[in-house]
Amino acid sequence: MAQKVLVEMLDDIDGTPATRTIPFSLDGVTYEIDLSEDNAAALRDGLARYISAGRRTGGRKVRVAAGQSTTSSTDRERNQQIRAWANANGYEVSERGRLSSEVIAAYDEAQATATEAPAPRKRSPRKKVAAAKK
């Protein structure tokens, strides 16, 4: 038996169909609200005075699910490898913090040249020698 399940997003203010989920924060708490275009515009208009007077503390718009970090374990492992390589190759890097783009580029270049395998040599075709029967 086949089923078709439809999920309808409703505006959290008036119950009309919502078109978007808008995240916002206040007093260190992050919220999300589902709103229609009209209510989303009203929210932005209502906050415009405070936004224009406030200071932006975030650099980019990034949505992170609750409980997740923006840095993955593979990023941390890569950064550890870069730090070890940089220390072994005369670069000064701290144990923590952001790596410079210069160090990352040098590491990537070193890895690319280290993994480039020489082109395989063409071998001349082997001649098949028929075994002599006695």
UniProtKB/TrEMBL annotation:
What protein name applies here?
Lsr2 protein
Which GO molecular function terms does the record list? acyltransferase activity; DNA binding
Q: Which UniProt keywords apply?
A: DNA-binding
- Species source reads Amycolatopsis pretoriensis
Tell me the lineage of the source organism: Bacteria, Bacillati, Actinomycetota, Actinomycetes, Pseudonocardiales
Keyword DNA-binding present in the record's keywords: the answer is yes
- Where's the Lsr2 DNA-binding domain? 74-110
| The keyword DNA-binding appears for this protein | yes
Which parts of this chain are annotated as the region Disordered? 59-78, 111-134
According to the entry, every stretch annotated as the Lsr2 dimerization domain falls at: 1-58
Q: Where is the composition biased (Basic residues)?
A: 120-134
Tell me one Pfam family matched here. Answer: Lsr2
